[in-house]
Design a protein that fits this description.
alpha/beta; Rossmann fold; 8-stranded mixed beta sheet; two-stranded antiparallel ribbon; 10 helices; 13% strand
Length: 375
């Protein structure tokens, strides 16, 4: 009897809690300020900011021969995250390519600007993890960020020409408006991820050709150099120096490079990373740094637990590969890019010295062993 009474007492005590738990929760409001593409109009499509506060500028005038007149009015298509309301994972249907500029406060501004070129296999532009996430990260170091929305192979464009042109034009445009945006014109670089590195690396070596090709006196950007002051090559696709390609000549003022990739776990991209590094090393380009991580795979690769490898800034399961961005900051600081605007960087000084020196003898073309003395 005592046991039964005790059970009844407990049941009575918890009954209100059960009743309360069964009541429906108040409805949640819908997500606010969710970004969305602009509408189709009779004018060229107006790209909308991916991150709040971005200044969005199309790369080409409406009548540019680089644009497709029958496509330029089509709105972009956003692929939104299924788990995070308002997060744009990727964008497709880009026919009016643009840059989106995010500036930092004057008190911390270094004047440096990084143009971010997302990957996606030329099928999508993964602007979430490989562009938007970097805006607050680089802000903390006083670095201005620029998100490039380049055209894609999936939408009918040539990745080795059309998309590379977008990257080159982006550098030139940022430099042209440097004063208006509080950017040091000598601290503008480009960072490409995977397929985005297939744009960043040609931009780092083919800038002279682009500037000569676009020297029309009627072009307001004529005379503005498209040379990047540095290049970030992040788990890259094939570069201009990939095996089987005809490698272009390396200009004497080629910018310094920061290269990062997984190693055997991302073998194909690691080989492409090595191709670029080897090309720079073979002619003695200063300040080229590479990090190859033994434990690291390409973003999107399947993992043993059924999930997929993350990219960009993500921690990657607390492995060293997840800290590559801090190694980039170390390199960036070492080359003087984190000083105040207007201060000449170590990178610029080293390139100036390098340009006065003869190219080193390529490996295997030296004088060889000393000849035997004649009898």
């Amino acid at each position: 009897m005592k046991t039964t009474a005790a059970l009844l007492l407990i049941a009575t005590a918890i009954a209100p809690s059960i009743a309360n738990a069964q009541k429906p929760l108040p409805p949640l409001p819908a997500p606010q300020s969710v970004p969305k593409p602009g509408p189709r109009t009779d004018a060229p499509y107006a790209p909308q900011p991916i991150v709040a506060g971005g200044i969005v500028v199309p790369l080409y005038p409406p009548n540019s021969p680089y644009l497709k007149a029958d496509k330029v009015r089509e709105p972009e298509v956003y692929n939104m995250s299924g788990a995070v309301p308002g997060r744009i994972s990727s964008i497709v249907n880009i026919h009016n390519p643009s840059i989106e500029v995010h500036m930092v406060e004057k008190a911390i501004n270094t004047g440096a600007a990084i143009i971010l070129v997302a990957g996606g296999g030329h099928n999508t532009l993964n602007v979430g993890g490989e562009s938007a996430d970097f805006v607050p990260f680089f802000y903390n170091y006083g670095i201005n960020t620029v998100i490039l929305r380049n055209r894609l192979r999936k939408d009918g464009y040539n990745a080795q020409t059309d998309a590379v042109y977008d990257a080159q034009q982006a550098v030139r445009m940022v430099r042209a408006y440097a004063k208006e945006w509080g950017i040091d014109p000598n601290k503008i670089g480009i960072m490409g991820f995977s397929a985005g590195a297939e744009l960043a690396t040609p931009a780092a070596v083919l800038f002279e050709d682009w500037d000569k090709k676009n020297a029309d006196p009627a072009d307001p950007f004529t005379g503005v150099s498209s040379r990047p002051d540095f290049v970030g090559v992040i788990y890259p696709g094939p570069t201009p120096f990939a095996r089987g390609r005809t490698a272009p000549p390396i200009p004497k003022n080629v910018p310094p490079a920061f290269i990062v990739c997984g190693s055997a776990g991302d073998r194909v991209h690691a080989i492409w990373a090595l191709d670029y590094y080897s090309a720079m090393l073979s002619v003695g380009v200063p300040n080229v740094e590479m990090h190859m991580y033994g434990n690291g795979r390409h973003p999107g690769d399947p993992l043993p637990d059924g999930s997929r490898m993350s990219g960009g800034l993500t921690d990657r399961g607390n492995i060293p590969y997840g800290t590559w961005q801090y190694r980039f900051i170390d390199w960036f600081r070492d080359l003087g890019f984190l000083q105040k605007p207007g201060v000449e960087t170590k990178a610029a000084k080293d390139i100036a010295v390098y340009m006065t020196q003869p190219l080193p003898t390529p490996p295997g073309q030296g004088r060889g062993p000393a000849a035997a003395p004649k009898p």
